[in-house]
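Hey forum,

I'm writing up a methods section and want to include a predicted complex as supplementary material. The small molecule is magnesium ion. I've pasted the protein sequence and the SMILES. Can someone with a working setup run it? I'll credit the forum in the acknowledgements.
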Amino acid sequence: MRKILVVNSKGGCGKTTVATNLAVALAARGEDVALADADRQKSSLSWVKRRPKSLSRIEALNWSKEDAIGDKDKKLDAIVIDGPGGLRSELAKNLIAEASDIVVPVLASAFDWNATIKFLDGISDIKRVRKGKADIYVVANRINRRSTQVKDLEQTLSDKGYPLLARISDRVLYACHAAAGSGVFDYSDSRSHEIRGQWHPLLQAVDS
Ligand SMILES: Nc1ncnc2c1ncn2[C@@H]1O[C@H](COP(=O)(O)OP(=O)(O)OP(=O)(O)O)[C@@H](O)[C@H]1O
Ligand SMILES: [Mg+2]
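Reply by user p_vandermeer:
Happy to help. Structure tokens for the complex are below, copy them as they are.
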């Protein structure tokens, strides 16, 4: 079973958006998926509550308290973990100890880069990650096509040894799905087709 942790010490970079859409992408292809919320704000748990019964089922796990981490994980194909914003080191270690894949969303804003690079350096130094038992994938989020900042972000991250794996556009559709308990893989309309393509590098990486 895969345990995919979505995490960054930086708040508001899209952890919940990435976690919910990743859970939907896996559930849409028939996998048994749980979304574990390790954030005290419990945004992912509220999202699961809003999820229409007609859509593929995603189980909710409350991991907002440290002693709940790791529970009830036997019968599932994957657990996607929505990590907390300000990550205390003990909780980070406990969550990373659970993870097979670590997805780090980052905004294409220079204010976010330094904090994210420090965070990446920190998690890369954890023994389990050093030993290659968990892979790190960096995903640029809220990319604006007309902005040149993604190129700078790409260069900055690759200079530090963290290549960008995927680029997710800034689209109002994500806020609509967040409100409706759904994700871009729930519906196969043509409008979402291009948007879904942006998730493929990440889906391929967590599959490998
Ligand atoms: N690709 C996107 N396009 C448009 N809006 C987005 C996108 N990703 C995230 N958002 C919006 O940005 C805001 C922050 O996203 P989100 O809640 O996923 O971040 P977070 O890292 O989980 O935040 P927190 O640290 O508070 O938990 C939300 O309003 C969300 O709808
Ligand atoms: Mg969140």
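Some notes you might quote in the supplement: The radius of gyration is 16 Å. Strands lie at 2-6, 33-37, 58-62, 78-82, 101-107, 135-143, 164-169.
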